[in-house]
Specification:
With 640 residues, the protein is an alpha+beta fold. Helix content is 70%, strand content 8%. It has 5 domains: 209 residues, no CATH class; 87 residues; 101 residues; 67 residues, SH3 type barrels (Roll), CATH 2.30.30.60; 99 residues, Alpha-Beta Plaits (2-Layer Sandwich), CATH 3.30.70. It contains 21 helices and 8 strands.
């Protein structure tokens, strides 16, 4: 539209040019301004070139003093050298000013011509100052003096385009202002300014298009290590970054054209609002990104517990690591919402008004805060209880309290289940209350349903109550060898639930026994045990001699490292237990650790059998008795 305005003013431009051509006074003014401008500007440029060549040696020496690129602090060492180079670059411009500005007075121009000459000189000095500042940062000719780290090609590229944009905008504006001194209409002046700014915007668009792949590579999310899967919030952020990398140039081009359009159409407060909104957007996004990175690092440090605290509370570091991704996602979510609200406020939408007293946003924020506090308290209670239980378990194991440790291991799953149910009930009720649900009917209904379920599931209640008392009395624990149930079942306790006990039999069978079916418990792994030994001996054997042999075998076995920790005391020979038709029964017992009675008994039997064969001690067998009776019958028949 601005271009259309310029085209619409072309007749005015033609009329002005025709008037200038017919007016001898106007021709004299233009001719006077032209040759005086060439004279003053040309002499100033020659002075600048002369000073520039005079400073070649100092520049080379200063460039040689610059440290090589690379190194952590080399950029800081380059600052004094770059500052010195900036001073040397200012001297030629100073030479231009010392010659050009006095020449304006020397040529005695007309008042209008003097304004034109000063405008052109000011524009040139401004362009040179901007380019010297860019050279201080980019230094396309020397990487040693470059403060901004980038390749030589990139530095030269940006310097070249900056020179074009600065030259067009500054000199274009200067010429437009100077044209007013020669009677150019204001409408044409404004159209020229708009056209110059449009050309500047198109130049920026060209830069964006040419560098879209480079910037897209910087915006795109980095590749993940093999096998790593990002969390939900991190995956969403990676998707957003990849999408932004694909369309960023379109967004920037539209923004540049919109910025020019708002300015050219003279929308009231539009240009300044767009600039403020853009600046606020960049500031908010930058601060949000910095806070996100900083808070993530702070959380990572907080999750790394000191060695003493981790040893005092075992499992705490593992739980902290478990909550780490959740906390990071929560922080990112809060920062994202806050940044979005600030962006809406920056663009004049008034998002903060949604959270005033009595508005929906205020109620939602209050409900979310209450729910968050409730969830935080629930997590703290849950983790403190788990940590205390784990600490007591570790303490019992460290102090050698095996029975207590086993008891805690048995009670731990049930206590955790009960605690989780209680916490979840309170948390759900609080959440429902905060979102506006009346929980009183729910509690009343749940009470009625609970009573009905209690009457209808008396066996289940009996299972729970019986199991609770069995555990409190420490009658059975995980890892015990027990005999219980009707009919009796024997095995090792693998797991205790809230209503049943799981046994693993010696043949691998699994028995699930409800607590209500447990009328008695025979626990074979408490405190100590006895490996019972019974032997049948012929009536002709000396029982005292056999008893001494048994004691010797037990003493040898106890002296071995393999069995010294399993056997608690010497063999107790209880004597002759009973008399049978085939011989006498000798009974003995060996005191062992609770879980070693059967291995010790089997090893004793093996050694006794080998020692009896070695010493010729006879163990009578039923087949021998039957053979003896048969021989007697044959002998009686033969004599008859």
């Amino acid at each position: 539209m601005a271009g259309a305005r310029v085209l619409a003013d072309l007749p005015a431009v033609a009329s002005w040019a025709s008037g200038v051509a017919r007016d001898p006074v106007a021709r004299v003014r233009i001719t006077d301004a032209a040759w005086k401008m060439l004279l003053t500007f040309g002499l100033g440029v020659l002075a600048e070139i002369a000073v520039y060549h005079l400073l070649r040696v100092p520049r080379r020496r200063l460039d040689a003093m610059a440290p090589a690129p690379g190194g952590r602090w080399n950029w800081l060492r380059r600052v004094p050298v770059v500052a010195g180079r900036l001073l040397l670059d200012l001297l030629p411009v100073l030479g231009f000013a010392l010659v050009a500005y006095p020449m304006v007075e020397a040529v005695r121009p007309l008042p209008t011509t003097e304004l034109v000459l000063l405008t052109i000189n000011n524009a040139y000095v401004l362009c040179r100052a901007i380019m010297m500042a860019s050279r201080m940062l980019l230094s396309p000719a020397s990487a040693h003096l470059r403060l901004v780290r980038m390749p030589d090609e990139t530095a030269a590229y940006f310097t070249r385009w900056l020179r074009r944009i600065v030259g067009l905008s500054v000199f274009g504006y200067a010429l437009a202002e100077a044209s007013l001194q020669f009677g150019v209409p204001w409408a044409v002046h404004d159209g020229i300014i708009r056209l110059i700014m449009l050309l500047v915007s198109l130049m920026l668009v060209i830069v964006v298009v040419q560098k879209r792949q480079v910037v897209a590579g910087l915006l795109r999310a980095p590749a993940l290590p093999p096998g790593e899967e990002p969390s939900g919030s991190r995956a969403a952020l990676r998707t957003l970054r990849n999408r932004l990398a694909e369309i960023w140039h379109v967004v920037v081009i539209l923004w540049l054209l919109a910025l020019w359009g708002v300015w050219a159409l003279e929308v009231p407060d539009g240009f300044s609002r767009l600039l403020r909104g853009t600046g606020a957007t960049l500031l908010i996004l930058g601060v949000a990104k910095g806070l996100d990175v900083g808070l993530r690092q702070l959380l990572d440090r907080a999750m790394a517990l000191p060695a003493g605290l981790a040893a005092r509370y075992p499992g705490l570091e593992l739980r902290a690591t478990r909550y780490g991704p959740l906390l990071r996602s929560l922080v990112s979510g809060v920062l994202t919402v806050a940044a979005l609200l600030l962006l809406l406020e920056a663009w004049g939408i008034g998002a903060f008004a949604w959270f005033t007293q009595g508005r929906l946003g205020s109620r939602i924020l209050g409900a979310l805060g209450s729910i968050g506090v409730s969830a935080l308290v629930a997590i703290l209670v849950w983790e403190v209880a788990n940590s205390a239980i784990a600490r007591q378990l570790t303490k019992a194991s460290r102090e050698g309290q095996a029975a207590r440790s086993a008891r805690v291991r048995t009670l731990l799953p049930m206590m955790r289940t009960a605690l989780m149910i209680v916490i979840l009930i309170f948390l759900v009720l609080n959440v429902l209350s905060e979102i506006g649900v009346n929980v009183a009917p729910l509690i009343a209904g749940a009470s009625v349903v609970g009573v009905a379920i209690g009457f209808g599931s008396q066996t289940l209640v009996k299972d729970v109550v019986t199991g609770l008392f069995l555990l409190l009395e420490d009658a059975v624990a995980v890892g015990d060898s027990v005999t219980l149930g009707t009919p009796p079942q024997t095995g090792v306790v693998e797991r205790l639930s809230i209503r049943s006990i799981r046994l693993r039999a010696v043949d691998g069978s699994v028995h699930i026994i409800p607590f209500s079916a447990v009328t008695s418990v025979t626990n074979m792994t408490r405190d100590f045990a006895f490996a019972m030994l019974e032997f049948s001996l012929s009536y002709g054997e000396d029982t005292d001699r056999v008893a001494e042999v048994l004691r010797q075998i037990a003493k040898e076995m106890r002296a071995e490292a393999r069995w010294s920790g399993a056997i608690r005391d010497d063999l107790d020979v209880m004597g002759v237990d009973r008399l049978l038709e085939t011989g006498v029964v000798l009974r003995a017992r060996l005191k062992t650790e609770p879980s070693q009675r059967f291995p010790v008994g089997r090893e004793m039997n093996r050694r006794i059998q080998a020692r009896f064969e070695e010493l010729g001690i006879v163990i009578p067998s039923p087949w021998r008795k039957a053979a003896t009776e048969e021989d007697q019958m044959h002998a009686t028949g033969a004599s008859a």
